[in-house]
Amino acid sequence: MVVNKWDGGATIRRMNAEFDLIRRYFSRPVAGTLLAGGDDCALLPPPEQQALAVTCDTLVAGTHFLPDDAPADVGWKTLAASVSDIAAMAARPRWATLALTLPEVRHDWLAAFAEGFYACADAYDVALVGGDTTRGPLAATVTLIGEVPQKRAVRRGGARAGDELWVSGQPGRAALGLQCAQGALELPDEARAQCLAALRRPQPRLALGRLLAVRATAMLDVSDGLLADLGHLLRASRLGAQLRQDALPLAALQQMGVSQAQAMQAVLAGGDDYELLFAAPASLHEEVRQAGKTLSLPLHCIGRCEAGETVRLRDGEGRKMTLGAFGGFEHFPAAPQEST
Amino acid sequence: MVVNKWDGGATIRRMNAEFDLIRRYFSRPVAGTLLAGGDDCALLPPPEQQALAVTCDTLVAGTHFLPDDAPADVGWKTLAASVSDIAAMAARPRWATLALTLPEVRHDWLAAFAEGFYACADAYDVALVGGDTTRGPLAATVTLIGEVPQKRAVRRGGARAGDELWVSGQPGRAALGLQCAQGALELPDEARAQCLAALRRPQPRLALGRLLAVRATAMLDVSDGLLADLGHLLRASRLGAQLRQDALPLAALQQMGVSQAQAMQAVLAGGDDYELLFAAPASLHEEVRQAGKTLSLPLHCIGRCEAGETVRLRDGEGRKMTLGAFGGFEHFPAAPQEST
Questions:
Q1: Which end of chain B has fewer CB within 10 Å, C or N?
Q2: Contact, B322 vs B178, CB < 8 A?
Q3: Residues 242-301 of B with CB under 8 A from A
């Protein structure tokens, strides 16, 4: 509790509740800083001979989470989304700022949010060095600063025709988890728990990202949906691609009891899993596979980059399939008159 | 406009409107970066042998500005608040991220917001290197990264008993401007325009902050109100202070036609001016005054630090005056049972 005494004939006690909140919930000691908290700025030692990698993500109640979601999960995911961006550059996360906007002071909510946030910070070695607490509709913004030797950073635009396309882990679970949470899907208990965990406690693929630093030619994390994010990678690389339906990681989802069509929808259009999608030369196929084994993380080679500007999907017999239904997630769907 | 072609038997055109927005309004070319925009992270060259100074500020519609405030002013102020924090560390701003949450896409609003934001960025040499655009209640968060030689950074906690206390420019105008905007105060046209400009286009004291780098012992910017922020400086420095009423910059406000009591209230409790409040050794009095002259910026020596933990105010005849009414601004007023 911060109590100031102002003395001007009388003594007045004053509690600056905003700063008290910050101090109470977000002032754990941090290593690797010169000054964190309690000043106008945090002071950080510059990473020597490394580039800074900087990313910024906002989670808004009602858009990215529900106001009654468990606050510890919201805290985790708020930071995890940014850690995932750092992973996708093959960088190492270092320092975060947290801007938290709250409609009211609810200490139980804040304590749980902070617990989840710090759990993620501890898991990925992030120091919370500053932030802002404001009154308003519930939302949280993280800016995360990482470091990476400049030549090891993996961008989106370096893929070449012939490179294989890979995706990590099990995309689609978060989308099924969201359907479960909304009551739109019934799954067996264990499958439901897995999908909800993927939605609520995504595990950014930091170790994988760093292992791919000199192997992947292009990389990003799947947050908008696999196809939408593939579009970003391909556009930046000025390429098209061909995907093989029988190489998509559908089996694990189908074993949960969803149809092939549901599994396709979840894998291709579901966001929020924070898996890594990357291109790597076919000559490194075994090396990439080995990286997955080292990390006990499945890596799926789902297709190839090719010249052109289209994405084609073929089934196991080589027949063309339509991709129209798998558009990914948009915050601002285009107005009809703008979409042509 | 971003149009993706997905070809899987049919050709589907898709517009990713979120990224289109970012591209359209916030993708001006930036200098001094390795990569900015269009990837998971921005890549920045590390400042050599300088510490990083990092600050984060959120402006929420309804709390920090009104939804119908001119968006160009909101854009300016969103960045200016963070530049002011950098100024208060005697640092130099370099790179910003902007997280913008919008209830809907209004192109005229966005274009004007971007115009004001970039006007401030140009004025203070800031590169916008990344951000996030989300759907939700209107709010903007900036994280600003600056650089400063570690030993030149001015913190809050370095003041010593006997140091003089100074404030720059004309604190209180923004508070009067807010009263004008709310229809609670009538001022002559020119005074009204000055006060509204102070409220809407605050001028962070970046040049002053850097001139004070080896002179000020403690410094911060006045955002919560002069007395409230003085409390932060004194608490960090474990000191009290004595202020002289006749040294407070009241005259310019009184000449606008407000009473002495109104001027006192505005100067001591009004926030949002983003002036610098700092302590400096009395032996540097003339040097500090000269710095103000160099910048054509009035600097007011308003009192002295002293041992203790109270702030006392004395009038021109040395009589104690009460400070109880000038508490500054709080986002979360403490509940009565917590305030003792």
A1: C
A2: no
A3: none
Which of the following CATH numbers is that of domain A27-149: 3.30.70.1660, 3.50.30.50, 3.20.20.80, 3.30.1330.10?
3.30.1330.10
pTM for the structure as a whole: 0.86
d(CA A109, CA A111): 6
User: A227: closest CA among A246, A206, A248?
Assistant: A248
* Residue among B6, B21, B135 whose CB faces A311 most closely: B6
Assess contact for B104 and B137: CB atoms under 8 A. Answer: no
**Alpha carbon distance B133, B101 (integer Å):** 6
Asked if the ipTM is above 0.95, the reply is no
B134/A58 CB distance under 8 A: yes
DSSP string, A258-292: --HHHHHHHHHH---S--EEEEE-GGGHHHHHHHH
- B164-321, which class in CATH? alpha beta
CB pair distance less than 8 Å for B339 and A56: no
Domain locations in chain B as residue ranges: 27-149, 164-321
Provide the 8-state DSSP code for A296. T
- Torsion angles phi and psi, residue A22, rounded to 5: -60, -45
Whole-angstrom distance, CA of residue A111 vs CA of residue B30: 39
| Nearest-by-Cβ selection for B54 from A15, A97, A137 | A97
- Using an 8 Å CB-CB cutoff, list chain B residues near A338: 1, 15, 17
Give the whole-angstrom CA distance, residue A215 versus residue A237.
Answer: 16
